[in-house]
């Protein structure tokens, strides 16, 4: 997916999307320790991102998605990253 997927960039996040291999699309998250040192913050962000994808799921069923945090994300900006994810997901091709 990293090689062949289409990339959608935001300030903190990058979405990589390809047509789904299986009927229902899958989602993956890449949140490194360098960009978010505290496990609590990494897990909270993943929960927020999962909820964004779950809310968009009927429309993007035919797409496999990877959400990657591309730069350090302060704890105070977690909600801003979730809003950014909603914006990026809205730009995905509908499956």
The domain count comes to 1
Q: First CA to last CA: what distance?
A: 17 Å
Beta-strand level of the residues, as a percent range?
A: 15-25%
Strands ordered across the widest β-sheet: 1-2-4-3
User: The CATH topology is what?
Assistant: Ribosomal Protein S5, domain 2
Helix residue percentage: 25-40%
CATH class: Alpha Beta
Please trace the helix and strand order, writing H or E for each element: EEEHEH
What is the 3D shape? globular
Polypeptide structure, described:
The protein is of the alpha+beta class. The protein is 33% helix and 23% strand. The protein has helices at residues 39-56, 78-90, and strands at 6-9, 13-19, 27-30, 63-69. β1 and β2 form a beta hairpin.
Q: Helices, strands, pairings?
A:
Blueprint: E1 6-9, E2 13-19, E3 27-30, H1 39-56, E4 63-69, H2 78-90
Parallel strand pairs: 3-4
Antiparallel strand pairs: 1-2, 2-4
Helix pairs in contact: 1-2
Structural key phrases:
alpha+beta, 23% strand, 33% helix, Ribosomal Protein S5, domain 2, 95 residues, four-stranded mixed sheet
Compact overview of the structure:
With 95 residues, the chain is an alpha+beta fold.
